[in-house]
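We were asked to recover a plausible sequence for a given structure. The inputs and outputs are reproduced exactly as logged, with field labels preserved.

PROBLEM: sequence recovery
POSITIONS: 287
GIVEN STRUCTURE:
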């Protein structure tokens, strides 16, 4: 799933490639991906893209005051085309293409989604806050207002595991499954640690890990082509999706905890005092 660093990089990429271009037309291939109808997607035709930004994991294209807001979900992606085929794409079948944007110079981009479980969402709105997922976002961890004190207020009294808290977009915007694993590894903190038990020192350590991990990932992705961002993300990860490999810090074997529709990875030596976590939902440290 694209998270804050990848969406930030996509926004930067589109600022270079798409801003200043007019929208020639938009082809909606998967109608289920389009979540709004007023204004209609056809209203974008003839308007100029004036900006590209990010709200958490939402990508936002300002099109002369209207906003094309995109959430790529788990398996969605944006694919840039220097030359977009003029012929409209027929909907249906197993085509991963959900939406195609044609620009006035012949370039444009596709929104695609792999797999059968569809979650990609596209909105055309007058204000990004009209998108429910944007309106409910928590603070952005790269904003100057996200201080150790702000994080302390977030975790205060929360009787939930820190891994889940970091992934909750209503609490902190932009961190998903992959970067929450990376952040907790950098902070040397168990993913099952209860948020309310964090000391002042723990909060400061976690804050530093959040900001540094995300900023480093953003810098690694800066200037890359859209097609290269997924590969860069995978290369930069130290523990996520690296089950069975050696921890780059201590050399211990990276372990995994599997859930119904996701999994987490961690290093026992760095994060849990050498004890493996039980591989079942809501488990605690093995005795």
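RECOVERED SEQUENCE:
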């Amino acid at each position: 799933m694209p998270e804050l660093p990848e969406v930030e990089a996509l926004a930067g990429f589109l600022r270079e490639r798409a801003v200043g271009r007019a929208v020639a037309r938009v082809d909606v291939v998967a109608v289920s991906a389009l979540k709004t109808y007023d204004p209609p997607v056809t209203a974008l035709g003839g308007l100029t893209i004036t900006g590209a930004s990010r709200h958490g994991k939402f990508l936002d294209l300002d099109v002369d005051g209207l906003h094309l807001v995109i959430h790529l979900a788990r398996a969605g992606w944006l694919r840039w085309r220097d030359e977009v085929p003029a012929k409209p794409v027929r909907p249906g079948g197993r085509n991963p293409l959900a939406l195609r944007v044609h620009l006035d110079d012949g370039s444009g981009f596709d929104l695609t989604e792999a797999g059968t479980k569809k979650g990609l969402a596209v909105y055309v709105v007058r204000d990004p806050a009209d998108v429910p997922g944007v309106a409910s976002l928590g603070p952005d961890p790269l904003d100057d207002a996200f201080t150790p004190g702000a994080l302390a207020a977030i975790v205060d009294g929360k009787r939930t595991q820190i891994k889940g808290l970091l992934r909750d977009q209503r609490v902190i915007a932009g961190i998903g499954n992959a970067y929450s694993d990376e952040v907790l590894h950098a902070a040397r903190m168990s993913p099952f640690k209860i948020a309310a038990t964090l000391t002042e020192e723990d909060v400061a350590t976690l804050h530093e890990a959040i900001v540094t991990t995300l900023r480093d990932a953003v810098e690694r992705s800066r200037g890359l082509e859209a097609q290269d961002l997924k590969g860069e993300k995978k290369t930069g990860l130290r523990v996520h999706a690296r089950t069975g490999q050696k921890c780059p810090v201590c050399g211990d074997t990276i372990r995994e905890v599997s859930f119904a529709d996701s999994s987490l990875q961690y290093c026992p030596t760095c994060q849990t005092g050498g004890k493996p976590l039980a591989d079942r939902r809501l488990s605690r440290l093995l005795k």
